[in-house]
Amino acid sequence: MDLPTGAVYDGPMAVSTRWLRAGLLVAAILGGCSGGASVILPDAGTPSDIARADVGGDAPGVPDTGAVPDTGALQDGGARPDTNAPTDDVTVVDASADGGNCGQTHFDVRAVPPNVLMLLDRSCSMQRSPSNALVTEASGLSKWSLALAAIHSLTTDFAAEIRWGLIYLPRAGTMADGVSCTGTAVCGGTTPCPEITPATGTGPAIDTVLSGVSPFVDCHNHTQVPITPLDQGLVAAGVVPQLADRTRADIVMLITDGEETCVGMARVVATVTALHTAGIRTAVVGFGAAGAGGVNATELNAMATAGGLPSAGATAYYAAGDGASLVAALRAIVGATIACTYPLGSAPADPSRLEVFANATTVLPRDPTHTNGWDYDPTAMSITLYGTTCANVRGRVYAQLDVIDACPDGGTTPPPTCHHLGQSCRTDTDCCNLEGLTCDTVHGTCVGSPG
């Protein structure tokens, strides 16, 4: 049988795909050998929602071998997959004289969610508005209320992409409980450290904790010690076990409306520098007006520069003067922490044949200059995105990234479109990897990754 040249999947052109599938099966039978690379083929019977191939199909000229028909094609309705369906990866071999692999290999690439430990200032000045005006808690205009709203937005929208954790300072308690500049102002008493351990899906737990430690209550009752122990908080962050994980990025996100009040600026900058040296970067957010009684711009600039995640704005720290700019600052930090490097898990047969697709349709350019596009690191067996390509991942322009080791003669089969949260799946590769999703194979739906 003559296989039409270049017959690859192109939208709903099922006939072309069936000819390709039939040719591969005949090649495998004639070659009489085993092994080979995995091939991702679309199911020609699902034009509206691309699925995997049924190797027991009835392509023209090839008798039905009696394989179980695939009744478990993916549907957007979230139907549970058929456990009798064939596996997603069809193994074929090349029957050509050179004995090379004719199948393309699809790498399941997934970003590694970074650890982001929020270090939140709950000093009594957080009761005031960003302009330092006196406001009530019920007004929702205090720096504390605005910070909680911004944090809720962040942990909700990036629940899968970021492993969120929390330490607040000073901790609950009085001087009699040991809360002081020379005592345990952050970790101690009934306050665990961290309050919330970095992990995915911790947003609701963070909301619950912060709703119970409002400075309005303790400061009104004169039971909160009037200090801002930033240095103690940073030291505590440095011994959180999760931030010693060098397989992912480890970040401290400091949100304060003032300055360190227990030790000098040199000491706190030295602590930030030590964290950076240990592999933990610090992003600094100054919330509210700068000047006496407010943000110490000199100190926060020095800390932000030493921390390794400075703002691209006029100041090294992320300056926020109201609720909207605080949300923008926090999102900018998240954008800088989302990974643009993806381990492949194994070395490609030929790195020169690698092709990278975004959203299943856009072929991304390879760029050895690391300006805009992607490149492969043979030592780490990973690809890294650069420039606008990386920015599109961080800005959620791309939901899906596919890396394919193409056939030597070209003719790459494009990857199927990924499925979003709650949509159906059979394996992790069916779910949008840049959204941090994996497949719950019990229920056949895409869910947030445990990270």
What does this structure look like?
With 451 residues, the chain is an alpha/beta fold. It has two domains: 1-104, no CATH class; 115-337, von Willebrand factor, type A domain (Rossmann fold), CATH 3.40.50. It is 23% helix and 17% strand. The chain has helices spanning 14-31, 143-157, 203-211, 215-220, 230-238, 265-277, 297-307, 323-337, 387-394; strands at 38-39, 90-91, 105-107, 115-121, 163-169, 196-199, 250-256, 280-287, 318-320, 341-343, 354-358, 362-364, 373-377, 382-386, 401-405, 437-440, 445-448. The strands form five sheets. It has a six-stranded mixed β-sheet with strand order 6-5-4-7-8-9, sandwiched between helices. Strands 3-15-11-12 form a four-stranded antiparallel β-sheet, with no helix packed on it. Strand 11 (354-358) and strand 12 (362-364) form a beta hairpin. Helix 2 (143-157) packs antiparallel against helix 3 (203-211) and helix 6 packs parallel to helix 7.
